[in-house]
Structure prediction request, 210 residues.
Amino acid sequence: MSTYEQIATEVLKGKKKLVAASTQAMLDAGEAPLDIINKGLVVGMSRVGVLFQENKMFIPEVLMSAKAMQEGLSIVKPLLAEEKMESNGTVLIATVQGDLHDIGKNLVGIMLESNGFTVIDAGKDVSPEVLVAKVRELKPDVMGLSAMLTTTMLHMKDTIDLLTEEGLRDKVKVIIGGAPVSYDFATEIVADGFSPDALSAVGLCKRLLA
Ligand code: B1M
Prediction:
């Protein structure tokens, strides 16, 4: 029988096929999809983060871990979004310009979808211009921006500034998240909210749209 610890270790080792098999085995054994994400996949990726920081893991290995994590996520995602409910609102999500980190953003999207939001994923490395055009065209209730680099988090401000210039700032709530950003930074750039993790992004969107 697979375990959460096994999934975490397989993510750490970048074993995509093993992660897929263990994720499926855990689901077959009746484990909840959310637990598989939070107690297995995310734990593995967090360990990758620590080792990368300590220069004990390098980019090719980190990428393999990222792919293994995405493989697990792709198996549990359809189950989380399975129950169709009336939409709580539409959220446009993206990782900002210059930033290729999309695992956290994808998790936010999955959590929102599984809590009844309609999610439009604009992808990663998305410029302020593209995001503002999407707000104009798709009229989301919330725009969720993710950044993982201290350099790219500045594009969150650029995106909000462009929304203001284009007269769209009061048409959409903007929330931000990602490792280098904080509540204070959200206040500084006049975002409507910050959330430290994927689950609290759901509560934040609900509060903002209440
Ligand atoms: Co990079 N990377 N990376 N990386 N990478 C970090 C972010 C870093 C902290 C590692 C380190 O040095 N300690 C560091 C940033 C340093 C800094 O700016 N302060 C770093 C660096 C330097 C780089 C490169 C510059 C390395 C290089 O090339 N020399 C390069 C930059 C590429 C680019 O973006 N232009 C780079 C590349 C990569 C990979 C491509 C190899 C890969 C990304 C693969 C992918 O995403 N598809 C990668 C990874 C995987 C990481 C670490 C190891 C893990 C990130 C992750 O996926 N975590 C990361 C180290 C770390 O975070 N400790 C690191 C798991 C994920 C579930 O958590 O993304 O934090 P997280 O998301 C959380 C919350 O932050 C929050 O909810 C999520 C779930 O709870 N959240 C939101 C995120 N977005 C949100 C949005 C919201 C709300 C909540 O509302 C909208």
